[in-house]
Design goal:
This protein is an all-alpha fold. 58% of the residues lie in helices and 0% in strands. It contains 3 helices and no strands. The protein has helices at 20-40, 46-50, 55-69. The longest helix is centred in the middle third of the chain and has 21 residues, at 20-40. The chain is elongated and about 35 Å long.
Length: 71
């Protein structure tokens, strides 16, 4: 994340994110990614992350974020 939005979505409100709903979905996405990293570690391959039992949660959160951010 080159914009660092996922590190603290609330700080991006009014700059890169335009609503509290956008902040909410980005916070959820960050939380889901963090869950994968905590479970799998920080040195895995992309394929190993995608094989995690927590990866579907990342995909669901990313899909919700996409829908909100592109509405």
């Amino acid at each position: 994340d080159d914009t660092l939005v996922l590190e603290n979505p609330e700080l991006a409100l009014g700059k890169l994110l335009k609503s509290h709903e956008e902040v909410s979905v980005m916070t959820e996405l960050a939380d889901r990614i963090d869950l994968v990293l905590k479970a799998e570690g920080h040195e895995r391959s992309d394929a190993e992350y995608m094989a995690s039992r927590y990866w579907p949660g990342v995909l669901q959160a990313a899909s919700r974020a996409y829908l909100v951010l592109t509405a």
